[in-house]
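RECORD TYPE: inverse folding
INPUT: structure tokens
STRUCTURE:
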């Protein structure tokens, strides 16, 4: 049954985390955006020709990005699950368009900013993460540039956040809570690396429990 929050009227949708994904209408494609560091790290590894098992990536990099990806893959309608970030936003848009061409039908897209869990225990609260808002906005912007621009208000707002703040992305990623957390661990360069827009053409797709190049 449709709800006011499922964004079913729109082709391009945006939400936060597992709960947000569940609020949305079933989408043909789910793009998981966890900029610091899950999506960025896995994208780089896939660009180098690696196959990255989901469980291994979750253990090494990020619990929440992997959690959202696994939840999306387990949906009964079997959506295509992609990883998106600032580094591959344009490439993700091209893959979305290619998938729509393969289907020869209007294809719905849920862009999910993962945010950050405040703990590793089940049911830990979700924390807003500015880097994921900007990464999701970059993906939505790139999709719209290819003509798929029937976006929900939520997706449009994320897109405009990216557009309006694009020139400040490096600063925002290093100065955000997540960036400061990495700085405290002497990982500032990872924030700067993740802030690079369209640096790679790889798009990880989740197949049989592992990320491979789309």
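DESIGNED SEQUENCE:
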């Amino acid at each position: 049954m449709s709800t006011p929050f499922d964004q079913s009227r729109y082709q391009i949708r945006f939400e936060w985390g597992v709960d947000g994904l569940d609020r949305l209408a079933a989408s043909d494609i789910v793009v998981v955006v966890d900029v610091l560091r899950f999506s960025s790290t896995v994208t780089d590894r896939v660009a180098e020709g690696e196959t990255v098992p989901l469980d291994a990536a979750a253990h090494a990099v990020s619990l929440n990005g992997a959690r959202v990806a696994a939840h999306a893959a387990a949906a009964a309608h079997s959506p295509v699950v992609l990883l998106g970030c600032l580094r591959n936003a344009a490439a993700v848009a091209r893959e979305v368009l290619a998938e729509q061409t393969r289907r020869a039908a209007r294809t719905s897209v849920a862009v999910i900013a993962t945010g950050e869990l405040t703990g590793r225990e089940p049911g830990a609260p979700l924390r807003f993460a500015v880097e994921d808002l900007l990464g999701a906005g970059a993906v939505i912007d790139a999709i719209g540039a290819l003509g798929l621009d029937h976006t929900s208000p939520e997706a449009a707002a994320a897109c405009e956040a990216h557009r309006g703040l694009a020139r400040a992305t490096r600063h925002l990623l290093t100065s955000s809570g997540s960036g400061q957390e990495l700085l405290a661990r002497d990982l500032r360069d990872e924030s700067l690396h993740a802030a690079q827009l369209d640096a790679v053409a790889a798009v990880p797709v989740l197949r049989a429990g592992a990320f491979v190049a789309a």
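NOTES: The beta strands are 12-16, 29-33, 52-53, 80-84, 109-113, 116-117, 126-127, 204-207, 210-213.
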